[in-house]
């Protein structure tokens, strides 16, 4: 994540997230989804917007599926954010 401008102190956790099996059964047989939940602390909104843009416009099929924001009490110009990021590949 260093190439996307995410400093080490912002990263809190990254963990696997459940996929879309059952929602789109026709596509699930041909596609494989990997999804992670990323927690970032003390990030400003312009940098978050650049991160989401870079993720979704980068190589491969990547989508930010969910964003949860919480304004910080100690600095209202910063937020803590949880992103659910998914990517898909054709099964081989």
Task: Describe what is shown at a glance.
The chain has about 90 residues and is α+β, with helices and mostly antiparallel strands. It has two helices and four strands, in the order βαβαββ. The chain starts with 10 loop residues before the first strand and ends with a strand.
Q: Could you describe the 3D structure shown?
A:
It is a single chain. This protein is of the alpha+beta class and 92 residues long. It has a single domain, classed as Alpha-Beta Plaits, CATH 3.30.70. It is 18% helix and 48% strand. It contains two helices and four strands. It has helices spanning 25-28, 45-57; strands spanning 11-16, 31-44, 61-71, 78-90. A four-stranded antiparallel beta sheet has the order 1-2-4-3, covered by helices on one side. A hairpin with a 6-residue loop joins strand 3 and strand 4. The radius of gyration is 15 Å and the shape is elongated. The model has no long low-confidence stretch (mean pLDDT 79).
Secondary structure: elements and pairs:
Layout lengths: L10 E6 L8 H4 L2 E14 H13 L3 E11 L6 E13 L2
Radius of gyration: 15 Å
List segments where confidence is low: pLDDT < 50 over at least 5 consecutive residues.
none
- Written as H for each helix and E for each strand, in order along the chain, the element string is EHEHEE
Number of domains: 1
Gap between N and C termini, in Å?
27 Å
Globular, elongated, flat, extended or rod-shaped: what is the shape? Answer: elongated
**Strand order of the biggest β-sheet:** 1-2-4-3
CATH class category label: Alpha Beta
The largest sheet, given as strand count, sense and whether it forms a barrel, is: 4 strands, antiparallel
What is the β-strand count? 4
CATH homologous superfamily - what is it? Answer: Ribosomal protein S6/Translation elongation factor EF1B
The CATH architecture would be 2-Layer Sandwich
Helix content: 10-25%
Average pLDDT, to the nearest integer? 79
Which structural class should the secondary elements be placed in?
alpha+beta
> What is the number of helices?
2
> Could you say what the CATH topology is called?
Alpha-Beta Plaits
Which percent band covers the strand fraction?
Answer: over 45%
